[in-house]
Amino acid sequence: MNAPHTDADFADWFAERARVNDQRVETIPFSALSGWEFDGTTGDLRHHTGRFFSVRGLRVREPGSPTVGGGGPREWSQPIIHQPEIGVLGILARTFDGVRHYLMQAKAEPGNVNGVQLSPTVQATRSNYTRVHRGGSVRYLEHFTDRRGRVLVDVLQSEQGSWFLHKRNRNMVVETDDDVPVEDDFRWLTLEEIRALLHRDNVINMDARTVLSCLPRPHPAADGRDGPGHAWATSSAALGPDQGALLSLTELSSWFTDAKTRCDLTADLVPLTGIAGWRRTPTEITPEYGGRFRIIAVDVTAPHREVPHWTQPMLAPCAPALAALLYRTIGGVPHFLVQAQVQEGCLDKLEIGPTVHCLPDDHHDRPPYLDVLGSLAPDRIRYDRVQSEEGGRFFAAENRYVIAELDEDFPTEVPPRHCWATLGQLKELLRHSHYLNIEARTLVACAEALR
Questions:
Q1: What HEC string does the chain produce?
Q2: Does pTM top 0.70 for this prediction?
């Protein structure tokens, strides 16, 4: 076993892995892409194999209604990443000395702001693990594709619904009793050690955060294999998801189903050449006015990856977003204020998101509760960190994640698109697919890391 016992142990190992896995990433013109080309008819940017992903056009119409934010209808077009295949995000677990440990990987991604971050044991698209790129095999994959051990988590979850079209990954945790050879880029960590690292910027990557959020809640009679756990999670488990909750789980699910039923947003694929308000230059596909992201191309040299050199397109955000979860105590139980968040790339067009998710400097589209967050005293902020989004498709994508406590006299009556839920209820919903979006799942993982 190689689990670190001090911060210095981990820091030395992590710094060494960052040095060994050093990579070079340079932006290049689209004409320098190898294996990628713009379709002569549609303008879509595709790989010559037809695998991996493509950049296509999406036309969206959002009629005005109370459920989706009110106001008149909105229409827009944008590029979107289309990757219909389902990848594997898997964390291998094993118990040492009565405490469960998780095998984490120090992995470099071309879009990571700091090169190496902690990822799941396996983080691979289907194209990668079937070796379309003709690279090396994915280590430890057999534990998840063959399910060698006890399955603790196995659920399909979405990714960024404004950047991906219908993107899903299989989130898995599998526990083994077998001796597992640990390679240099991998390290056993306890859940407490991983959660402590969530209090640092850009250490635990997005794929690890989503899998961690799906871990089962600790039971009050648990054997302690995951350590002491957070008081919120433990108390929620002791009470059950409905006890002490403002709404029952059935009522919460009904609220969400009603929001999906009332959502009239339509999103249709169109040729990339046909999207209005965007222009293609030799080096980027960019919005003509403002905008939230652009499409670029990069050249990557990473000697220790399955493929040591490649080129690819990437989505580059124009600015960091804010994802905030507000909570208050109701009847002695913390309740989180969540929203039915419309995202054009989601399968059902919306999922449960944080209280606030926006570009904070966008003065034309200020969401409810952004000003409430801004008015809170500093001692009400329980969590405030910058975390990276997926580094394999997004270039230098960071969001600010915040958890803040409201006063106990804050109104419990909220707009129709918002709802109160306990942490136990959110964890219960995470046993199923397509309830919580990726930003909400990150915030659940961060909430469980709070002391």
A1: CCCCCCHHHHHHHHHHHHHHCCCEEEEECHHHCCCEEECCCCCCEEECCCCCCEEEEEEEEECCCCCCCCCCCEEEEEEEEECCCCEEEEEEEEEECCEEEEEEEEEECCCCCCCEEEECCEEECHHHHCCCCCCCCCCCCHHHHCCCCEEEEEEEEECCCCCEECCEEEEEEEECCCCCCCCCCEEEEEHHHHHHHCCCCCCECHHHHHHHHCCCCCCCCCCCCCCCCCHHHHHHHHHCCCCCCCCCHHHHHHHHHHHHHHCCCEEEEECHHHCCCEEECCCCEEECCCCCEEEEEEEEECCCCCCCEEEEEEEEECCCEEEEEEEEEECCEEEEEEEEEECCCCCCCEEEECCEEECCCCCCCCCCCHHHHHHCCHHHEEEEEEEECCCCCECCCEEEEEEEECCCCCCCCCCCCEEEEEHHHHHHHCCCCCCECHHHHHHHHHHHCCC
A2: yes
Q: What range defines the domain where residue 225 resides? A: 1-451
Question: Per residue in 289-336, pLDDT tens?
Answer: 888 999 999 999 998 887 899 999 999 999 999 999 999 999 999 999
Domain count for the chain, please give it. 1
